[in-house]
Design brief:
Layout lengths: L1 E5 L3 H12 L3 E6 L2 H10 L3 E4 L5 H6 L7 E4 L4 H13 L5 E5 L5 H6 L3 E4 L7 H6 L13 H13 L3 H14 L4 H11 L14
Parallel strand pairs: 1-2, 1-4, 2-3, 4-5, 5-6
């Protein structure tokens, strides 16, 4: 089995430990140089010190058609972006930690098998979940999807694209308050804009 794991914190390390012990082909991606170097020393797997929200990096890691793509970072926005890219690349199973319970539905709509509150578990649950995924269809035409893409584009600094997605979300549902608030915040000057304020529920 080929498994791509994004995030090599405590939970990620446990997954890598279990997967390599069972002699699966494992590729790890982490943006932290120190964690990546430690994983490269400790485990018999490929380790990439890189940004997993890049489609090119995920392709280089072999995500296209991989048996499982797992994200365990504490940042839900990063996890969402990786899951969306992984789905586009044809990863067979998508699994992710979710730090904020309010975001669970967004992951579920993409067909992601989720694990809430990763700080309270030990990676073994994740590894077992690879054997029993829960895949559902993600409707990219829904206003929630447009709004989510707007948030992701804004996090990446692509403000024109973010504005376009918020407009699409409001065109599909004029009463969509989360998209309206995101659009209003984005329209402010950089000095007035509230950094870190995003609405996706």
């Amino acid at each position: 089995m080929h498994i791509v794991i994004v995030g090599i914190g405590r939970t990620g390390r446990r997954i890598v430990e279990l997967a390599t012990r069972d002699q699966h082909e494992v590729v790890v991606i982490d943006h932290d140089a120190e964690r990546a170097a430690a994983a490269s020393q400790d485990f018999d797997c490929i380790v990439m010190h890189a940004d997993a929200t890049s489609s090119n990096i995920l392709e280089e890691a072999g995500t296209t058609g991989t048996d499982a793509l797992i994200t365990t970072t504490p940042d839900d926005a990063v996890n969402l972006m990786v899951m969306m890219l992984g789905r586009k690349l044809g990863a067979r199973q998508l699994l992710s930690s979710v730090s904020n319970p309010a975001h669970i539905r967004l992951f579920q709509e993409m067909g992601v098998h989720i694990v809430e509150s990763p700080h309270r578990l030990n990676g073994q649950y994740f590894y077992r979940a690879v054997q029993r995924p829960s895949i559902r269809d993600f409707d990219a035409t829904r206003p929630e999807a447009f709004n989510l893409m707007g948030v992701l584009m804004q996090l990446r600094g692509e403000l024109h694209e973010a504005r376009r997605y918020y407009e699409s979300a409001l065109a599909a549902r004029p009463s969509f308050e989360s998209a309206r608030r995101n659009q209003t915040n984005l329209a402010k000057s950089p000095a007035e804009r509230k950094l870190g304020e995003y609405h996706i529920e």
